Amino acid sequence: MRISELQTPALLVDVHDLDHNLATMARALPGPRLRPHVKAHKCTELARRQAAAGHRSFTCATIREVEGMAAAGLGEDLLLANEVLDARRLGALADTARVTVAVDSAETVAAAAAGGVGEVLVDVEVGLPRCGCAPEDAGRVADLARSKGLTVRGVMGYEGHLMLLADRAERARLTAESMARLARAAADVGGDVVSAGGTGTYADNTVATEIQAGSYALMDTAYGAVGLPFRPALTVLATVVSASSPSSDIQPPWVVADVGLKSLGMDHGNPTVPGATVWFCSDEHTTMSFVQAGAQPDEPRSVRVGDRVRVLPAHVDPTVALHERMHVVDGDEVVETWPVDLRGW
Amino acid sequence: MRISELQTPALLVDVHDLDHNLATMARALPGPRLRPHVKAHKCTELARRQAAAGHRSFTCATIREVEGMAAAGLGEDLLLANEVLDARRLGALADTARVTVAVDSAETVAAAAAGGVGEVLVDVEVGLPRCGCAPEDAGRVADLARSKGLTVRGVMGYEGHLMLLADRAERARLTAESMARLARAAADVGGDVVSAGGTGTYADNTVATEIQAGSYALMDTAYGAVGLPFRPALTVLATVVSASSPSSDIQPPWVVADVGLKSLGMDHGNPTVPGATVWFCSDEHTTMSFVQAGAQPDEPRSVRVGDRVRVLPAHVDPTVALHERMHVVDGDEVVETWPVDLRGW
Questions:
Q1: pLDDT tens digits for range B278-292
Q2: What is the value of ipTM here, to two decimals?
Q3: What is the model's pTM?
Q4: What's the Cα-to-Cα distance from A35 to each of A26, A88, A100, A292, rounded to whole Å?
Q5: Does the distance separating the beta carbons of A317 and B322 come in below 8 Å?
Q6: Is there a contact between A324 and B318 if contact means CB atoms under 8 Å apart?
Q7: B208 and B289 share a domain?
Q8: Cα(A244)–Cα(A251) distance, rounded to whole angstroms?
Q9: A-B interface: how many C-beta pairs under 8 angstroms?
């Protein structure tokens, strides 16, 4: 099938850019040094490519992601890097997958034990005010877990506040500070896993035994601004459905494409369209102008109704969560279509 | 089923608030004076309630919404208030639904005719730089449509830039200005339909023969700030999965609930949690503090790990698009569960 036959909006994944990203990361962090985070693509077919690149342990953010990965036969070593108060659905996977869950409190330890999950990581707050116990509490949480019969594999922490720092040296310095907190906790907790990091810090985090990067596979414009060796592989294909009248009071001329708030994660701001200035997004529309500053208002419009444009989302994770499928493309050809099968909870 | 048995995150619809909203709107705009927009809830069961309240013509934003409404037997008069360049899936519904599509250009007229759609509205730009031809071009577009054998039912326009204006008098004044543009176009186009308006202007738009409001049914915090007689009926149920350590360097104490960028539309900003200050959202988390300004830092935390909280989204439309179902609740009881069955394209 040709791209021109696709209905829009449609997620496109450039196979060469994807392969480049997977190969680049596999060289930097081979095999178990990377625990790819599936939340960034929610797609077991893409996870299968990551497994083929050598990474057979995965990170998940939701129980549904864990279930889906197990059902796809990718359950060799699944970490739910998130706290849950009801772990029964995880416990039910005992026969088909190895499941480890994050704990950071007496309540989440009790839930893991009650749900029948055998293994945990102690989640440690490393500077991002989100989940994780204080480093000085980590040993106590580990002891509690062991007292409930759980195996404590080690610690995890996520320096998420540092991922998008543009200054590489500053990012490395603050990552080291953040990971010193995790190392302190790891010494108290024991076990052999120190799981941390992400696409922004994968090259600078020297404390983690495994890096939980996810966005590197598809990328987005926020990570694209950080100076990483990964290419934007994901775009949203759109059709230009309307163009302004030359006589409109509103200038410069604009066009409207059929992607919007329901096909783009918006928390990192507007998407990027090469050559255009994006004005705003509505539910199913992006209004933009292709007229460059200083151009004459009567200059012929370069983009017309019916044309296709490719829209780069600002944040990959919530973008994929809005789509049922992604089309893998090689030039103008759709070579595969993968369900985004890990959506929901 | 009790709400406490639901897994989180989960969309909750308060049945009394929903009924209040539907009844309030049906009194203001009875029967065909309202053409409810299904994009705001994407749920045929909710549309069925709107039909029971007297509104049997509906507005859609996507072809999938039109198809789903037709399949649900709600296809008496469906308007796709959006431009499409490939109308074949709409034309295929000819035996099961009455479908009208918006056109604003020669290309969209040609697509409607080629796709087998029989009826159109001429979409007019009324001040929002999005779809719609200039008012002075509307007659020409209508003539072109008629020359292709299409029935032109009238005009539509959307004063979307005015919906969230807080000053009611200013909103009414600008709506009148905007609708003067639509009335001018309507005179040139002919037909008996003037379709426009939304939840923010439903009471002030005196030109439209029918109002395309959608958000009034479930509401959100953005519309909640405008002073309308509709109640917030939609919340996202969340579980508190983590709480900060009293010894954390970061103060004041915070908790983390399991709703985030993948369960909340974020284009209108952070959600609201009654009693809390929301700090930020991550993919599956909202970090917030329940400590009021001026409180002592050692004051007992009022919200604990395992507690449930209700999160009010800032924008209803992209929020529902992220969920597979909504639970209709009466007090603590889940009385019905409705699929969000109009998602996708």
A1: 999 999 999 999 986
A2: 0.96
A3: 0.96
A4: 11, 24, 13, 43
A5: no
A6: no
A7: no
A8: 9
A9: 161
